[in-house]
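sanity check this record:
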Amino acid sequence: MRADPPAPTEAAWRRFSVRLVAAASLLLAGYLALALAVDPYDTGRPRLLARDGVRPQGPRTAAASRGRDPAYEAAIIGNSHIQLISPANLRAATGIPFVQLSVPGTGPGEQLIVADYFLRHHPRPRALVIGADSFWCTGDPAVPPLRPFPSWLLAEDWASYLRGLLRITVVGEVVNRIGWAMRTAPRRAAPDGYWDYEPDYLALGDPDMPARVASRAKAAPDDPDPGEGGPGFPAAARLRALTDRLPPETALVLVFPPVFAATQARPGTPRATAEASCRAALAAAVAPRGRIVDWSGDRPELHDSRLFFDASHYRQPLARRLESDIVAAIEGPAPGADTPRP
């Protein structure tokens, strides 16, 4: 009859636990060393695969590479409401190399993180264009993100960056980065960040389909959204802090993007008053050196449904007109001469 093996002693379990922890620590250290060497999102931190740019991907992660690129001396910051502004067109008109750093689905908190990242890598930019839509009117002092956002990727401190590298999606991107960098001529995400959303919208249906027509006809409620506003508007205070960091020679343009006329707040309503107060607070935050491009009021173009996909996403012809106003603001009158329209 065979005897059962002796039960592990406490000392044996202790040795096993130590070896297990040591092995896990070595694996973790090895992965972090590999991730730092590979630099999956081209942040410029220590890397072995020194290939500029990133593979085609969304702007949330591609912003790390674009925002540090020394080829650009100016940036466009915002979300899809300023996404159609072409950096190439602004460059052709002003001679300033622009990068488009807009990230769809973001609010002021995330956009100011992107702006801060750009300024850390470009301490003396020639211009900064910021699109401030209704999301900037939040009353939440925390100015929370609208959707998950990789703040760790743009963080200045190493601790946040290293913690971010431990995400499962990043592990996959480390592998993807190695394969991408080993190709002779890998396809690269657009260096200037321009993403024309018109084909994407058209692929989802005709602009005159009933659902989109209805979205452009839906009137805004008379009362402000819950949580809108607040003492001094928190996003305006953060915008002021950003403005104070800019050198005197930087042209700062604050854009209030177009909204289809039928969906705007009716004059004289509490909502219209709150929105006007928000724009005034944001304009004051960039005064006296900032210039305002205000498309929030009543213009003929805002009544033309052919220029919009929905209430707040305009089309290329209107984007070209907005670009002209931005160029005029950059090259136009002295800072402080422009004021927001009611």
About this structure: Strands lie at 74-77, 98-100, 127-131, 251-256, 291-294.
